[in-house]
Amino acid sequence: MKITLVTETFPPEINGVAMTLGRLVDGLVELGQSMTVVAPQPQDRVVFKDNRYQLVPVPGWPIPRYPELRFGLPAKRKLSQRWRADRPDVIHVATEGPLGWSAISAARKAKIPVVSSFHTNFHAYGRHYGYGFMQDGIFRWLRSLHNRCLRTFVPSEEIRESLLDKGVQNISVLSRGVDSVLFGPHRRDPQLRRSWGASPSDPVAAYVGRLATEKNLDLVIEAYDTMRTSLPNLRLVLVGDGPARKALESARQDIHFAGMQEGPRLAAHYASADCFLFASVTETFGNVVTEAMASGIPVLAYDYAAPAKFIEHGNNGLLVPFDNAGAFLDAARDMASVHNRWSEMGKSARSVMLPHSWSNIVEGYLSELKTLTCKHKNHSF
Question: Residue 313 CB: number of other CB atoms within 10 A?
């Protein structure tokens, strides 16, 4: 098949953190599919090249408060011209902004089957950035966009049911896997731990992800402080970057800020920690939770998305009622009180993740695309 992916997160994450879209592209190429990726050209004007697939740059603009990321500007004319000259079998739109809308319009006009995916709860970010009053309007935009597609892929049954209740149609679950070869206890690095100021006996808690308000980092730090009442030598390592880093780094000299990490270095940061704290309430899935578990460390998180699917409370981590900060802090105390079981819990966490490979997920996705394109041949939009 000739598949075109339209997104705003390429190419930065395909060559770094093992994100969902990068895994899909890698997996589809390995299965012999012809891949084209449409994405905004990076701000530094350097176009990432990978001879396994074509990368088509389109105009973009820095995202407010995330200047290192770009959102795509409308590109209907360019995409229409390209797809007339080189028609794909199916188009997957993985961006819900102006670029995504224009791509769907161009695909529908050319009668090319188009699917979409729901990756981020953008409409839920409003309360963190002062535009909560716009949430309903933003969601109406999202719903309209996804309902113009033959299928919308979501990462969990929980998200599927929520979106169906809100009027989004034709939804399939496209779960997310984890690379248990890349992420595993074998990546533990004593030298890396020493660079954090942790001795072999010092416990280390970690967080991996965007350093941004919507990730609820204040609660992560409060949980760390709570755990230190019984584990005074506990260290906290924050892996990632984002708009909140400068203020946090200035305020908390006791926390180690590791910055962005990729590939084996990222895997080493997971495995060199002893537990994982994740307080975000805006996830559609939470890849970092599965990566932490595959790395052999127990996770404390809210009971939804990936944590709800994979964490067995008390066995390989701790689950907390959704968006209950008080319960999260109580669970942090509990996590500290069972620190002598972290190694055992981490082994259980890894064993739960081992069957969830990306290859099975990509094969299922490709099978559904083939079914949709066959049905589309005999129907019009």
Answer: 12
Per DSSP, the three-state class of 58 is: strand
Average pLDDT taken over every residue of the chain:
89
Structural tokens at position 200:
């072999």
Report the sign of the C-alpha dihedral through residues 31, 34, 38, 39, in that order: positive
pLDDT value of position 2: 97
**Short-list 325, 329, 211, 340, CA closest to 275:** 340
Instruction: Return the exposure string of 81-117: e unless at least 16 CB atoms fall within 10 Å of the residue's CB, then b.
Output: ebbeeeebbbbbbbbbbbbbbbbbbbbbeeebbbbbb
- Number of domains observed in the structure of the chain: 2
Query: Does residue 381 sit within a domain?
Result: no
Same-domain check for residues 296 and 157: no
Tokens coding 51: 């001879």
- Are residues 59 and 38 both part of a single domain? yes
Domain that holds residue 214: 185-353
Q: Kindly state the tokens that stand for 29.
A: 């190429």
Q: Verify that 233 and 288 share a domain, yes or no.
A: yes
Comparing CA positions, the residue from 5, 76, 80, 72 lying closest to residue 35 is: 5
Cis ω for the linkage preceding 307 (within 30 of 0)? no
- Rounded to whole angstroms, how far apart are CA atoms 151 and 35? 19
CA angle 284, 221, 201 (to 5 degrees): 110
In a domain? residue 371: yes
Tens of pLDDT, residue by residue over 277-324, are 999 998 888 999 999 999 999 999 999 999 999 999 999 999 999 999
**Distance of alpha carbon 297 from alpha carbon 301, whole angstroms:** 13
Q: Which residue is associated with the tokens 């932490």? A: 292
Kindly calculate the radius of gyration of the chain based on its CA atoms and give it in whole angstroms.
Answer: 21
d(CA 213, CA 210): 9
Decide if 245 is inside a domain: yes
